[in-house]
Amino acid sequence: MATTIIKNPNPTLVKCVFVALAVLCATPLVNTPVALCLGIAMAFLLGNPFASWSSKATGWLLKAAVVGLGFGMNMHSALQAGREGFLLTVFSIAVVLILGFVLGRMLGMERRTSHLVASGTAICGGSAIAAVAPVVKARPDEISVALGTVFLLNSVALLVFPPIGAWLDMSQTDFGTWCAIAIHDTSSVVGASEIYGEEALQTATTVKLARALWIIPVSLLSMWLFKGDGRKVSIPYFIGLFVLAMLANTFLPDITSVFNSQVVALSKVGLTITLFLIGTSLSPDRLRTVGFRPLVLGVMLWVVVSVGSLVAILW
């Protein structure tokens, strides 16, 4: 049982509160940052009574939500956004991976742990860590530390990026590109950009999913660097489904117009619930697991990629 602020809460009551909050997140009363905060509060006060189930549901909900959002996007606009963010994506991934190695050595970290944190920061958070971990033969504790570090920074980014974008008066396209490059996980990228606006959401989702394709070459590079087993490289199949949905919306408007608005609306609800479930995994135990040095490395890499990409986009 995870450590919580309220000691020995009634199990039935905890389950009822969890279900009630999840249902609340499915209503228009709750947006993505509020859902995340509700999840964190649940984790700290009462704990997650469905930890194993919610962990699996988070992955499936996120993938379904991303694919559904494809029915609200236009392929021509997506290609333009992808071209604009390509060079910045390549440069930022290379810089983060190199810096991760150098700073990890300076901090005296395990090489695999620093590489996992750098991979998650460079590409797409937990998905990249999950793909790279088998090929570098990472231990469970190393995977947990890397995931915890990336998740903590994801939560912060979801809350602070929209106010920063508004303060700098960033355009929808610029903000979406910044989110896609500087925020780790797809869930937080979509959540932050959705708050900013519809155009930002479309740009961020497209650039982020194009960036996620770099999981494959980075996994192969990791296999070579660590001389691991390449048979376990994971390919993010849901990206292909997202592209198919976007193609259908672009070239078959007579068919998709019947249901695309409903699918997109349901996808946004699914995303909000996903952020709640993610928040429920941020327990005091998870915070202790992260440790000091991996968190320092994660923050340093995140600051570099966030500030560097912001300057490049604004200039």
Descriptive account of the structure:
By secondary structure, the protein is mostly helical. It has one domain. The protein is 78% helix and 0% strand. The chain contains 16 helices and no strands. Helix 4 packs antiparallel against helix 5. It is globular. The N and C termini lie far apart (50 Å). The model has no long low-confidence stretch (mean pLDDT 82).
Helix/strand layout:
Blueprint: H1 11-25, H2 32-45, H3 51-69, H4 75-106, H5 111-122, H6 126-135, H7 140-167, H8 172-182, H9 186-196, H10 198-212, H11 215-226, H12 238-251, H13 253-256, H14 260-280, H15 284-290, H16 293-314
Which structural traits does this protein have?
315 residues; mainly alpha; 16 helices; 0% strand
Provide a concise account of the structure shown.
This protein is an all-alpha fold and 315 residues long. The protein has one domain (11-314).
In helices, the fraction of residues equals over 70%
Q: Tell me which oligomeric state these chains represent.
A: single chain
The class by helix and strand makeup works out as mainly alpha
C-alpha Rg (nearest Å): 19 Å
Write down the overall mean pLDDT: 82
Strand count: 0
The largest pleated sheet is described as:
none
> How would you sum up the global shape?
globular
The span between the termini is 50 Å
